[in-house]
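> forwarded from #structure-qc
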């Protein structure tokens, strides 16, 4: 039985920059938020999605209709806070049930100060974003006792129209950690929780452009001592750490204005140190190699995207979260496509033909999503082994 929330929580307004208005119920903190509205098709993993730093300044609508069913817990986080600018869902079930649950989704959203709206026709909203492209929006969550007025709606539409455009925004340095730190936590197993890396074989320096924790865990699990460095660390400082491998992380915003990261990646790749990039890191490696990126119409956000490995022919179902992509037509001779999206044919993987550097547009670390393409982490280890001789 599904119990409706309607009428039990304060109203909230969702306004899009084109003037479309939806009315729903507040299921998070009271107040207003703006951002680029994007849809994600994952059926589970709302906590990993909310805490993925790549969603900074984006409001996420989840196409799966029931969100919150299993509550939240302190372990399933991809960073130390909610980064998504807001959340839009269809139905918040009144019962959250899971043995790992420590809070309900609403308790968590309120504690994190995240504005969220439920009872929205997310099918209609998604069709709109898919047809017209991603656009900016505003969620205005009213306080208890307040009602939706014409003035409030006008204010929400104006806020949506006034939100900054994602194209041209450098957000990697905004979310990056302020200082370097060592990472030792390994992957999670049932009954044991997260493991610990104690006997590392390789030293990986990981650029934090908004890194997801599960990437670091998968590196630690595979025998890497990981040093995470801030986004604006120079190549010279990284080389002083004597790394066996360089990792370029995922992150929010437009890759093109991240000139500091592009310059550092270019220099580091030239040294012949094995380099692996994920998502924003993939885009930065491509830009550092002379390719170009572009803003997609509505991007890829979900955990069900088929991607083809062009060398083996193998198809993997992958986790995705990006609004920009590398332009295939702009590839220089030493940058070879290794993977393509079977949804729209856009580039998903690249490798340098002259250096041990490769990258992937989707998320091999999953979290949430399938682990089909986790083999890319093993490839990074193999490149470091080859280099070590
Ligand atoms: N997950 C990511 O790293 C996203 C990369 C970039 N911000 C994009 O939207 O394309």
């Amino acid at each position: 039985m599904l119990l409706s929330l309607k009428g039990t929580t304060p109203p909230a307004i969702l306004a899009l920059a084109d003037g479309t208005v939806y009315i729903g119920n507040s299921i998070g903190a009271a107040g207003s938020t703006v951002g680029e509205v994007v849809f994600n098709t994952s059926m589970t993993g709302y906590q990993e999605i909310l805490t993925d730093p790549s969603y900074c300044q984006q409001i996420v609508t989840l196409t799966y209709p029931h969100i919150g069913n299993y509550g939240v817990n302190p372990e399933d986080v991809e960073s130390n806070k909610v980064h998504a600018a807001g959340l839009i869902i269809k139905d918040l079930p009144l019962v959250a049930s899971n043995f790992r649950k420590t809070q309900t989704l609403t308790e968590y959203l309120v504690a994190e100060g995240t504005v969220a709206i439920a009872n929205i026709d997310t099918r209609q909203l998604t069709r709109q974003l898919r047809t017209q492209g991603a656009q900016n929006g505003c969620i205005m969550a009213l306080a208890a006792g307040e009602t939706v007025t014409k003035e409030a709606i006008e204010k929400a539409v104006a806020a949506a129209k006034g939100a900054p455009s994602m194209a041209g925004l450098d957000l990697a340095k905004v979310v990056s950690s302020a200082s370097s730190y060592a990472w030792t936590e390994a992957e999670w197993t049932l009954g044991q929780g997260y493991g610990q890396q104690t006997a590392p074989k390789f030293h990986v320096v990981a650029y934090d452009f908004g890194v997801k924790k599960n990437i670091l865990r998968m590196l630690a699990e595979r025998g890497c001592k990981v040093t995470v460095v801030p986004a604006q660390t120079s190549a010279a400082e990284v080389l002083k750490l004597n790394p066996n491998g360089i990792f370029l992380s995922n992150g929010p915003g437009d890759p093109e204005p991240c000139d500091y990261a592009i310059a550092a990646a270019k220099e580091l790749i030239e040294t012949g140190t094995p380099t692996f990039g994920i998502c924003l890191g993939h885009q930065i490696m491509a830009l550092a190699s002379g390719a170009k990126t572009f803003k997609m119409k509505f991007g890829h956000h979900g955990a069900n995207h088929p991607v083809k490995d062009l060398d083996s022919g193998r198809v993997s179902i992958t986790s995705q979260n990006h609004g920009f992509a590398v332009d295939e037509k702009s590839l220089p001779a030493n940058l070879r496509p290794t993977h393509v999206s079977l949804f729209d044919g856009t580039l998903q993987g690249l490798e340098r033909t002259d250096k041990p550097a490769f990258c992937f547009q989707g998320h091999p670390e999953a979290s949430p999503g399938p682990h089909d393409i986790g083999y890319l982490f093993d490839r990074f280890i193999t490149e470091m082994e080859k280099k070590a001789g």
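QC bot note: The domain at 172-388 is CATH 3.40.50.880 (Rossmann fold). The longest helix spans residues 375-388.
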